[in-house]
Amino acid sequence: MCSKKVNKIEQAEQTNGYSSIDQLISDSKLDESSKQIINFLINANKKMAETITQLQSVVQELRIKTNDLERDNSKDSVIIYNLPIGYKGSLFEDFIYFSSTVLGVRVTQDDLRALHPLAKVHNFNSPPPIIAKFVKFDAKNSIFNRKNLLKNFQHPKNGRRVFINERLSSHDVGLKMEAEKRQMVVSTWNSTPFIEVSTHVDYPRQSS
């Protein structure tokens, strides 16, 4: 009942020109007990609104920190899509062979901190994306900077293109997808977390 009265009072304040809710309550014909309850509810509502604002600020700060941590953890990693696997006995050997013969980059197991598929391998002819995390950022760049060599390279069994992307944070992936949807993406750099967009309205450039 009191909640309904509060709503009515707030609506009346907007329509009757009262300078404050307190003035409206004072001029109303409510008994003193009802006025006290309404004042209590109004103050509680204000405190709750302040708390929500503070919590939203904390959540936003945590999101920024989480994204920064993800970016830092991802900057030395690449994701290889449709990598030919199952040819050399192990995933490490497949990746090392691919890097040397296709990209012309010599990689050893000592250069890799981790190498694993992002999903269970059910069929070598249709491999899941493979994430490669390097010990050093320069080693990662030596692979990533040669991704253009894969422009015409296809998987020997399924005929689909093999390509390499940087590993982006969850937030940056969402931002990139939204920009791609609007045909605005030019390129991304995880080492300097930045997504460049084209402001050219007539001829938006596509993702590299």
Briefly, what is this?
The chain is of the alpha+beta class and 208 residues long. It contains six helices and six strands; from the N terminus they run H-H-H-E-H-E-E-H-E-H-E-E.
Reconstruct the topology from this structure.
Layout: H1 2-16, H2 21-27, H3 32-74, E1 77-81, H4 91-103, E2 112-117, E3 130-134, H5 137-144, E4 163-166, H6 170-181, E5 185-189, E6 194-197
Antiparallel strand pairs: 1-3, 1-4, 2-3, 5-6
Helix pairs in contact: 1-3
Q: Can you give a write-up of this model?
A:
- The chain has 208 residues and is α+β, with helices and mostly antiparallel strands.
- The chain has 3 domains: 2-71, no CATH class; 75-166, RRM (RNA recognition motif) domain (Alpha-Beta Plaits, 2-Layer Sandwich); 168-208, no CATH class.
- The chain is built from 6 helices and 6 strands, in the order αααβαββαβαββ.
- The strands form 2 sheets. A 4-stranded antiparallel sheet has the order 2-3-1-4. The chain has a two-stranded antiparallel sheet with strand order 5-6.
- Helix 1 crosses helix 3.
- The longest helix is centred in the first third of the chain and has 43 residues, at 32-74.
- Mean pLDDT is 79; it is low at 200-208.
Task: Give the low-confidence spans.
Answer: 200-208
Please give the share of residues in helix: 40-55%
Strand arrangement, major sheet: 2-3-1-4
Q: Given the structure, what is the number of helices?
A: 6
Number of domains: 3
Quick check: average pLDDT? 79
Radius of gyration: 29 Å
Shape type: rod-shaped
Tell me about the largest β-sheet.
4 strands, antiparallel
User: Any guess at the CATH architecture of the largest domain?
Assistant: 2-Layer Sandwich
- The level 1 CATH classification of the largest domain is Alpha Beta
Measured by DSSP, the beta-strand proportion falls in 5-15%
Structural class: alpha+beta
Q: Order of helices and strands, N to C? A: HHHEHEEHEHEE
Termini gap: 61 Å
Would you count the extended β strands for me? 6
CATH topology-level fold name of the largest domain:
Alpha-Beta Plaits
Which assembly state applies to the chains in this document? single chain
CATH superfamily of the largest domain: RRM (RNA recognition motif) domain
